[in-house]
Write a structure and sequence with these properties.
This protein is α+β, with helices and mostly antiparallel strands. The protein has 2 helices and 4 strands. Strands 1-2-4-3 form a 4-stranded antiparallel sheet, covered by helices on one side. The longest helix is centred in the last third of the chain and has 25 residues, at about 65-89.
């Protein structure tokens, strides 16, 4: 997966996730929305076969980059917990 920054402003950001479809952008938006400083986290995929999803992030009181980093850490933590659960079985 490759991340392209399309727009990067003080309280908004648009990124494109090349090589992805719906799964990771949906997970990323979920993790972003866990942050109280994130007002909007949505993605748009124009065409499921040839499109690249664009994630739109709007924040208040925190930069979108900081929110994105926190969301990625949350995803990593959730996956680590899941992996530990599998190891217990």
């Amino acid at each position: 997966m490759k991340l392209n920054v399309i727009e990067d402003r003080k309280e908004s950001m648009v990124i494109e996730l090349q090589g992805e479809k719906h799964t990771f952008p949906a997970l990323l938006c979920w993790a972003l929305l866990q942050d109280a400083k994130v007002e909007v986290a949505v993605y748009d995929l124009k065409h499921p076969l040839v499109g690249q999803p664009k994630v739109i992030i709007k924040t208040k009181g925190e930069t979108p980059r900081a929110a994105l980093k926190k969301a990625l850490k949350k995803i990593k933590s959730e996956l680590s917990d899941l992996e530990k659960g599998i190891d217990k079985k």
